Amino acid sequence: xxxxxxxxxxxxxxxxxxxxxxxxxxxxAFLPKxxxxxxxxxxVLGLVVALVAAINQHGIEAEAFNGMLVVDGFSSFLxxxxxxxxxxxxxxxxxxxxxxxxxxxxxxxxxxxSIAGTMLMSSAADLIVIFLALELxxxxxxxxAAFYRGNVNSEEAGMKYFLLGAFAGGFILYGIGFVxxxxxxxxxxxxxxxxxxxxxxxxxxxxxxxxILIGLGFKVAAVPFHMWTPDxxxxxxxPATAYMAVGAKVGGFAALIRIFVVAFPTLxxxxxxxxxxxxxxxxxxxNLVAIAQKNIKRMLAYSSISHAGFILMAFLxxxxxxxxxxxxxxxxxxxxxxxxxxxxxxGVVIALEKSEGKGLLLExxxxxxxxxxxxxxxxxxxxxxxxxxxxxxxxxxxxxxxKAVMEGGYYGxxxxxxxxxxxxxxxxxxxxxxxxxxxxxxxxxxDRWVTLVTASSAVATVVLFMVSTPLFAxxxxxxxxxx
Length: 483
Description:
Blueprint: H1 5-10, H2 12-30, H3 38-56, E1 62-64, E2 69-71, H4 73-99, H5 105-123, H6 127-145, H7 152-183, H8 188-197, H9 202-220, H10 228-235, H11 238-263, H12 268-291, H13 296-315, H14 324-352, H15 368-371, H16 373-387, H17 393-407, H18 411-437, H19 448-466, H20 468-476
Antiparallel strand pairs: 1-2
Helix pairs in contact: 2-3, 2-5, 3-4, 3-5, 4-5, 4-11, 4-14, 4-19, 5-6, 5-11, 6-7, 6-11, 7-9, 7-10, 9-11, 10-11, 10-13, 11-13, 11-14, 12-13, 12-18, 13-14, 13-17, 13-18, 14-16, 14-17, 14-19, 14-20, 16-18, 16-19, 17-18, 17-19
């Protein structure tokens, strides 16, 4: 089995991130304490270089390492999304980490390794590689969740995430074993060939697919595999939560979509009823439980769960050859809309957060719109986008999502999506009412990088709505390589 430099060039953005993170470990070890800030700038530089390489790969279709990795429109779209998210996550972390006393370069290095894992998940075309990429994405996240050393909540968050993540990884590995037992292969192309030729144990194949679905359901925080989410989001350092909310979802859905669309379309008849139930549970539980939350991080955690349900809606028609391309495009567009809105909202949370968990209750936002109108308006825009109200990119995302779902014939699920969006309006707009209609004296922490991320995300949330048609056309070009 021979490999060449072409394999490395085909996955150049991922290679850049891994090599850069590895080099940063050495740089960080020898930097004098007063120059530790250089690690932050080098992290951003590495992500920008990788982002340029990913943009240059747009439109290229290739394979690497004997088909274990593929480069296609799907992987290019997600690579650009996760690298851009990484840059925003670094900007949110700089002032926060310094303020809370854990401004260490290892944090940014861990984030780079997690980004590399997510990028590998978007390109992986072999079940074993998908599992390895999943671990590369997840293990740094466990460390980042517990990075606030000495803080009990952070340490608890890291432990919970690690234990439950390892448990979910076991489901995925067990599922891969069943698929291998049924088909004799782990490469997606070989699995497709085996299924088309007829497998001796179709039950093994179905059980394997179901176990993989359970494991990835944990990663995207779908109900009933969501129980880690509110505790981990609340206990982790907020910049880590901000990255986790986007990064884990991108990686989980990248693997979910590629595995099931490419390898298991013939199982859709058996799996769609299960998926329908997962979507319904995730939408209902995520939105209803969010109503009862008084802590902003827990509210956004349940909000994130509900948005996983919306993305899963687009996944339902994956076995329909006439619809799956538009449904995958709708899921990718929604991920983009969610990422922009999410980073902006977490920027507002970071601006108000104080030590010992102060500034995280909804009541702490009273008077924010009056005292800091620009920040209040920005949070208003993010809440409208999460709800799906124009003129925000969140509205465009939900419109395209419901359109794809109805094209697949799932009208009942589309109606449920609309109804749960109305439920979500209650807790999103409740925060707006608190900000603008209740009196209070909130104090924010001035941080130019957080302000930049929040302001740019607010502008992008509105402006990208105006250009949502070409954006969706880009998502439609993010075609999966089929075998």
